[in-house]
Automatic annotation (TrEMBL):
Belongs to the ribose 5-phosphate isomerase family. The active site is at E103 (proton acceptor). This is Ribose-5-phosphate isomerase A. One of its GO terms (cellular component) is cytosol.
Length: 219
């Protein structure tokens, strides 16, 4: 099976986690896009969605799914999104698709985070995928120096501006054995908006696309 077929299979499997009559949180990226396309088939059975990016909002709207602003919503039962890496403790690196801050915000009000990922995303230790950090543009170099002091090698994703008008530093060469502590440590750097470690609030369910089918596990 191709990687896209694996992504499609987990996106399809995630539809079973969508509660009827409710508003759900929707992530960003190619796997989330397959999920949005699948969700279109049940658009009349859900109230709508909160999107984690302008791109996902556009795709949801194109599929006729009603959009809600997060400020209109107190709680979401479910948030469905992909990941760049996920470890055995359900901690993730996200943000390859630039949407990490809004993803983290929408996920924070969800009762359950359903992670949909192809098998290549499952790792023993997070960090082979460079850790995205969203920074206020003015603070980019100041933050980069602090990230070097933490042992990382930040690279500015030049030309990329987030939905929030900020910049992204991709931090290479981190072997992340303590993801909860590192998430908090990086978020404490002045000028950081958020970082792509989803550890304090990791996934609750993982739907992993493998050659043998979708393997589901719960934290
Ligand atoms: C976007 C993300 C995505 O979930 C992550 O990059 C995975 O993307 P894809 O589903 O395209 O492999 O965090 O900010």
């Amino acid at each position: 099976m191709t990687q896209d077929e694996l992504k499609q299979a987990v996106a399809q499997a995630a539809l079973a986690y969508v509660p009827e009559g409710e508003i759900i949180g929707v992530g960003t990226g190619s796997t989330a896009n397959f999920f949005i396309d699948g969700l279109a088939g049940m658009r009349d059975r859900i109230k709508g969605a909160v999107a984690s990016s302008e791109a996902s909002a556009k795709r949801l709207a194109a599929q006729g799914i009603r959009l809600f602003d997060l400020n209109e919503v107190e709680h979401l039962s479910v948030y469905v999104d992909g990941a760049d890496e996920i470890d055995g403790g359900f901690c993730m690196i996200k943000g390859g698709g630039v949407a990490l801050t809004r993803e983290k915000i929408v996920a924070s009000v969800a009762g359950r985070f359903v992670c949909i990922a192809d098998a290549s995303k499952k790792v023993a230790v997070l960090g082979r995928f460079p850790l995205p950090v969203e920074v206020i543009p003015l603070a980019r170099n100041a933050v980069a120096r602090q990230l070097v002091a933490l042992g990382g090698r930040p690279v500015w994703r030049e030309g990329v501006v987030t939905d929030n008008g900020n910049h992204i530093l991709d931090v290479h060469d981190l072997a992340i054995t303590g993801p909860v502590a590192l998430e908090a440590r990086i978020n404490a750097i002045v000028g950081v908006v958020t970082n792509g470690l989803f550890a304090a609030r990791g996934a609750d369910v993982l739907l992993l696309g493998t050659a043998d089918g979708v393997v589901s596990s719960t934290r």
